[in-house]
Design the sequence.
């Protein structure tokens, strides 16, 4: 009895520790008073002032666009890469899998700085021919695709391994071209993996700060870099509201990613 | 029989430096039920995959109807395969599965519907159009896989151990089903199995393979009654394979006793392998037999009793419908035409000799 109580209490305690900061943030985002020192009653005014702030809305649209595009492109490239990896012999596959995993294990700051250096180097090279690289939307997009790729591969690969390859051969056998067979037979089978890879990539891109910080140009911001620069000037309660929104969006996406395959299994039974 | 349809010429294939097929030569006639039979790793599935276009041979060529198709991809070949693990498209209905190949060939809807009906009738699964593959039993799924292949009107159907995952009763039913299908369709079947009984039941021609070599090609009767070497004799059914000496034409000495036989041309006093099928040994009273022994083991097998008889230092495997309890003194007799004489392999390696045609 007591043991049971402590077990539950312990779990509760851990989750309080985990979520207390975010809860505080969410509560304060509804605080009518501007100071953190006291509770001035419930209000949505920070939310409404947030949506009147042009710079923030611009950052929001950048964030969503980059998240969507980078997730889409990473999903396409990652799925193709998985197909190639899957057809390799196991030794070569292990090698290339480790290679693709490195960006994921690498400290983000290292990835960020090295991407920045690369863009500068490429820019210098292009300037020899009169070209150039402007840090901005494109560089952020490329950066996000880069760090999203391994996550897509990681979520597609297990599905691909489960695929009964003789269904692919059977499709070829009765007249399908390899491309047609892939889209008609393999893709539907690995779709849950592709979708969760896409959502994972979207989420990661949405809340990335460090890499974005290094590869963004002046004047172009995503929400996370915008919040950072706003906060440096002095914390405004709008930022609580914005952070709350970012948190809730990411939470919802994660819930979708995690619950999707389960529902599929239930439907089958 | 009829014309050569497929000719495999000098097929050699290795995987990671390991030789799987070594200079394999084989032809398949039109409308033949040919079975590639052998233990796992003998190269039978690789041969089938080369025919289907899923593997390219390192050397040699595949001639189909006089045309070299060695490099042709599977989707361009007039051969269709039924895979071991059914390989149905699980997210499509049965009708969509069967229509898959026809839709690629841009057939009209009426034609496709007709074909689906016809194919389902052929495999005795009328009315299953809208079911999903997961809701079907293993045997039913395998029938759908066959239906999906035959609607494309292949000249040849390749079957890769299609009954391997089914239980015994179902397997036997499906064997008859396959023979019926083949007769109704009038096309060539190339069948791969490691199950000798399946091979004997269904085939016109059996190709026994081991370690990438063809051991013997022949009708089921040939293969069973006149195995050309110890491997074939051992692989097809139970047998007693005993060292013997061919004293002269029509007389062989086994374990010190002289047995009349029907084989000639082995020379005098030549060491040979003698194959005697367990059901060909008659157990008699001790004084009536060619040699005498004592029953050491007895198992009831349903159709017959399986006994082991110790005689002249060899454990003879005997099948008989008569019961001789353990310890009974018996005489063994074998009719001359039931004794199969084989040349001894020259060396260990020659256990697996390549026999062309």
Sequence:
């Amino acid at each position: 009895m007591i043991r049971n109580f402590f077990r539950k209490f312990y779990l509760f305690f851990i989750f309080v520790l985990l979520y207390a900061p975010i809860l505080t943030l969410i509560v304060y985002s509804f605080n009518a008073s501007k100071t953190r020192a006291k509770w001035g009653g419930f209000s949505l005014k920070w939310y409404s002032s947030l949506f009147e702030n042009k710079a923030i809305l611009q950052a929001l649209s950048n964030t969503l666009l980059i998240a969507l595009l980078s997730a889409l492109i990473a999903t396409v490239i990652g799925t193709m890469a998985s197909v190639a990896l899957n057809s390799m012999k196991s030794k070569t596959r292990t090698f290339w899998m480790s290679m693709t995993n490195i960006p994921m294990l690498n400290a983000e700051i290292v990835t960020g700085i090295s991407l920045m250096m690369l863009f500068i180097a490429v820019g210098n090279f292009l300037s020899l021919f009169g070209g150039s690289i402007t840090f901005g939307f494109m560089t952020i997009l490329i950066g996000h695709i880069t760090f999203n790729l391994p996550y897509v591969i990681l979520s597609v690969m297990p599905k691909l391994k489960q695929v009964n390859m003789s269904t692919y051969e059977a499709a070829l056998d009765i007249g399908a071209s390899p491309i047609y067979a892939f889209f008609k037979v393999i893709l539907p089978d690995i779709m849950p993996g592709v979708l969760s890879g896409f959502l994972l990539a979207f989420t990661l891109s949405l809340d990335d700060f460090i890499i974005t910080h290094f590869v963004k140009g002046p004047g172009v911001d995503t929400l996370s870099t915008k919040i950072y620069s706003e906060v440096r000037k002095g914390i405004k309660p709008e930022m609580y509201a914005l952070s709350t929104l970012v948190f809730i969006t990411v939470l919802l996406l994660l819930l979708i990613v995690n619950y999707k395959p389960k529902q599929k299994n239930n439907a089958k039974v | 029989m009829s014309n050569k349809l497929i000719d495999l010429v000098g097929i050699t294939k290795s995987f990671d430096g390991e030789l799987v097929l070594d200079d394999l030569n084989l032809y398949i006639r039109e409308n033949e039920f040919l079975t590639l039979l052998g233990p796992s790793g003998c190269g039978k599935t690789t041969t089938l995959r080369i025919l289907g276009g899923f593997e390219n041979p390192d050397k040699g060529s595949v001639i189909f109807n006089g045309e070299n198709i060695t490099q042709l991809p599977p989707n361009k070949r007039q051969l269709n395969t039924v895979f071991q693990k059914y390989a149905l498209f699980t997210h499509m209905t049965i009708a969509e599965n069967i229509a898959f190949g026809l839709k690629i060939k841009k057939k009209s809807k009426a034609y496709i519907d007709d074909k689906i009906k016809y194919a389902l009738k052929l495999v005795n699964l009328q009315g299953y159009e809208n079911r999903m593959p997961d809701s079907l039993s293993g045997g039913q799924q395998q029938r759908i896989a066959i239906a999906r292949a035959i609607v494309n009107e292949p000249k040849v159907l390749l079957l890769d151990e299609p009954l391997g995952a089914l239980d015994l009763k179902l397997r036997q039913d499906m064997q008859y089903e396959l023979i019926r299908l083949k007769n109704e369709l009038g096309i060539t079947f190339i069948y791969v199995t490691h199950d000798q009984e399946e091979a004997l039941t269904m085939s016109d021609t059996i190709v026994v393979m081991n370690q990438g070599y063809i051991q013997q090609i022949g009708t089921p009767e040939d293969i069973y009654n006149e195995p050309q070497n110890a491997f074939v004799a051992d692989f097809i059914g139970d047998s007693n394979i005993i060292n013997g000496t061919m004293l002269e034409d029509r007389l062989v000495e086994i374990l010190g006793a002289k047995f009349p036989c029907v084989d000639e041309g082995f020379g005098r006093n030549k060491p040979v392998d003698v194959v005697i099928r367990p059901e060909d040994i008659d157990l008699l009273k001790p004084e009536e037999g060619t040699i005498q022994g004592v029953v050491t083991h007895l198992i009831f097998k349903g159709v017959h009793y399986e006994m082991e008889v110790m005689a002249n230092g060899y454990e003879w495997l005997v099948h008989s419908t008569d019961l001789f309890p353990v310890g009974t003194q018996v005489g063994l007799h074998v009719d001359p035409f039931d004794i199969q004489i084989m040349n001894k392999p020259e060396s260990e390696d020659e256990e697996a000799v390549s026999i062309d045609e």
In short: The interface with chain A takes residues 52-54, 73-75, 80-81, 83-85, 87-91, 100-101, 104-105, 134, 145, 148-149, 152 of chain B (CB under 8 Å). Chain B has eight helices and 20 strands. The domain at 239-344 of chain B is CATH 2.40.50.140 (OB fold (Dihydrolipoamide Acetyltransferase, E2P)).
